[in-house]
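for the writeup, i need someone to sanity check this before i put it in the appendix. the sequnce is what the collaborator sent (i think, or maybe the updated version? ugh). structure was predicted straight from it, no edits. if anything looks off just tell me and ill rerun, i have time this weekend
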Amino acid sequence: MLRLTAGRVGSLLTRRATAALSTSSARMASHEVSETVDMSQPLYWDRLDTPLPDRPFKDIVSAADKSLKQKEKGPWSQLTKEEKIALYRLMFCQTYAEMKKPSSEWKTVMGGIFIFLGFTGLVVWWQSIYVYPPRPRTFDPEWQAKQVKRMLDMRVNPVEGFAGKWDYEKGQWK
């Protein structure tokens, strides 16, 4: 069994306590920087499939917006077009047309795909030069022609196979 002296146990505990305190202070520093979101509260989302979000876009309204909200309770025929748009922007961040507007994200995706394919091609090229051995001589066309001639001279599988398709009197394929 292991025997630890009191000094070794003390230094071990001191190191662990120091590490724990330093990581918790780092955690506290990061906690001050980041803002937490209460997920139990309703959130605002601009989504095509959810026409009415859980809460309005602007929760905190100015004095002008409050007077506009009071005016909203009356007849809408008295509101100007600009006031109706301002009321809409209090409730929603984007219109359906703005949400459906195509983005240029496809260009980024295609660029990433082409970069990945280019890098893969470079890796394959590098491997063909430095990793793989040279092609065997049996792949050369002259070697294959000599091999066919040798198989015909040996009359390999003369009934239904290779030599059966060769006309030996004319010296050509049947």
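The chain has a mean pLDDT of 84. The longest strand covers residues 166-167.
thx in advance!!
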